[in-house]
Amino acid sequence: MAASLSRALKLPGKKGSDLGEYDPLTQADSEDETEDDDLVLNYPRNGLSPAVAGLRDEEEFDEEEEELRAQREGAGREAGSGRGQGGAAEEKAARVRGAVRTAAFLLPLSCAALLVLLCAFLIPCPQGAPHWPQWERELGDTAGVTSPPVALWDVDGDGLEDVLIGVTNISNDSQPMNTQSKKFSVWALSGFGGQLLWQKSLRGPLFSVQCGLQTGSSNPLRWRETPDSSACVLISSGHMITVNASTGRTLWTAEIGAVESSAVLLPDLQGDAFPDLLIATLPADQVSDLALVLISGRSGALIGRPVNFNLTAQGKLIGPLLHETQTGAYYVLFGLGTVEAVSLSYIYSQATGRTAASRVRLKESSWERLRKSNSSSLIHISSGSEQVEFVLPLASCQAHSNLDAASALNSSRSAWILLCDSSSRLSALRASDTRTLWSLSLASIHTRPAAGHFNDDGVPDLLIHQSANGVRKVQMVDGARGRSLWEAEFVCPRLAVEDSSVLTASGQSVFLFWAGDPLTQTQNASKAAAAAEPVLRKLFLFHPFYPTILLQLSSTTDTVLTATVSYQAQQKDASYISVSSRPSSGRALGAQMLKTLSLRAAIAEAQIVRLTDASRDGKLSAFHINKFFRRLAFRQ
């Protein structure tokens, strides 16, 4: 009934079936259809009255509407079911995509972590060339080592400096030994294990070996770069030989005469891009004049003629030593029991009759004022009437067997000159005007001091040892003021071996010296020395950071004859190379041994020796001492 009233009140016109919107375009048609509808409604069907027909139509319409609603609900359920199934599929696809992205992120990260672990633990990092902590080689049936061992450029490519040494072999058929029964040679030995790399026969005993000469460098202080461009100068009485450092091949030979000194490296005097050399000659009777000879570093030919100097003094041959002043002037120091100086330009002009190059013609005014007269070519350096034993620059490097930038005993640009005379008086002279800076009276000194850095004032200090009455006194002298910085007494080892210094990465030096057992203040030195039979020689290492501690690196009853230090840059290590003679009965010569000892390996196994009572330095535990010394790194 309500539906009928609703349709009866319905306005004419059509609405959208979906949104119920009014359509003005069909309003006219709707009015015509309304009239038709009125006719239909008022028309009696099947004999029924219009009211009854209207009720039947209403019921039929309600049924149709219910069926239509049911169909719509069914279609909605089907659509909802479809949408549910689609949402589940999309959710599953999203989970798969997330898993793929996570795997793509974690897989490279895992590979990177695995690579880091492989590099850190499984693949070993390069540690430099392996080397034996120590080795020794018997030098055969020899009559003696004719020259100290010299550190040689790495010839065999194992990362270690090799060793060059001159030896004298005795023939098996010799009766009394004479010159003809001896064979002289020079050996190049591997720094890895002492294997023979090359050897060269010589006509006479070898008393000087110097390596590092650059064959093709106009800078006299240029460091050697490759073994092929480095040469060694071998000097024996009467001649000089220059050989290739890696093969031993002869580069040139020079007949000089009575050579009495090592070679001095000079600037390039001839403009051929090769540094030149200077040596001193002196006959054995010392009647003839001392002469300085210039030699071409390229061919070995004499540059001009020998320059003679009529020296009235007689004594030990001093130098020659090249000294470069602060203004760049070159002077040669030499003498016989005294120290004289002469300009390099004067030597060149007297030898060749030509004027030297402009950079060699420089003069030092403060030195020139020391000349006694304008007619004299010599400048008197040493003062007093006492004989001079040796002269050396106050420099921290003592590689006097090298002709390179590390050489300090035969070519010096140091601002200091150190003199020692026969009365065991040690003096330091200022290089600018040769005035005495300090002087120190000592007991007998038989070897050169070892220069190194004990304090941090930048001036090298001196380690010296004195021996008297069975006691060896080892002392550290301040290079700037001449005062004692440290000293200790030991049983005398009955050796005359030069002490050594090695520079560390911190800028301080460690010092190496031979001595017996340390003596305390309560010990009787003579009794301790008498009880020490056979004599036990000990190699000690001393560091300025621990002045009351020594490290005993080795001990032996052999007689140590000579020693030197070589460096291994890759390992930040240094090796102590020594030549010693085994004990023998009677007057027979003992077998001579060449030994090398890695300092870092020796420090790891060293014995700690305390110079004071343990109660006084009890805070210095062995653990901290060992930790400090094992972290040392050495450099040139």
Automatic annotation (TrEMBL):
<feature type="transmembrane region" description="Helical">
    <location>
        <begin position="102"/>
        <end position="123"/>
    </location>
</feature>
<feature type="compositionally biased region" description="Acidic residues">
    <location>
        <begin position="29"/>
        <end position="39"/>
    </location>
</feature>
<dbReference type="InterPro" id="IPR055409">
    <property type="entry name" value="Beta-prop_FAM234A_B"/>
</dbReference>
<keyword id="KW-1133">Transmembrane helix</keyword>
<dbReference type="InterPro" id="IPR045232">
    <property type="entry name" value="FAM234"/>
</dbReference>
<keyword id="KW-0472">Membrane</keyword>
<dbReference type="InterPro" id="IPR011047">
    <property type="entry name" value="Quinoprotein_ADH-like_sf"/>
</dbReference>
<feature type="region of interest" description="Disordered">
    <location>
        <begin position="1"/>
        <end position="90"/>
    </location>
</feature>
<protein>
    <recommendedName>
        <fullName>FAM234A/B beta-propeller domain-containing protein</fullName>
    </recommendedName>
</protein>
<comment type="similarity">
    <text>Belongs to the FAM234 family.</text>
</comment>
<dbReference type="Pfam" id="PF23727">
    <property type="entry name" value="Beta-prop_FAM234A_B"/>
</dbReference>
<keyword id="KW-0812">Transmembrane</keyword>
<feature type="compositionally biased region" description="Gly residues">
    <location>
        <begin position="77"/>
        <end position="87"/>
    </location>
</feature>
<feature type="compositionally biased region" description="Acidic residues">
    <location>
        <begin position="57"/>
        <end position="67"/>
    </location>
</feature>
<dbReference type="InterPro" id="IPR015943">
    <property type="entry name" value="WD40/YVTN_repeat-like_dom_sf"/>
</dbReference>
<feature type="domain" description="FAM234A/B beta-propeller">
    <location>
        <begin position="146"/>
        <end position="635"/>
    </location>
</feature>
<dbReference type="GO" id="GO:0016020">
    <property type="term" value="C:membrane"/>
</dbReference>
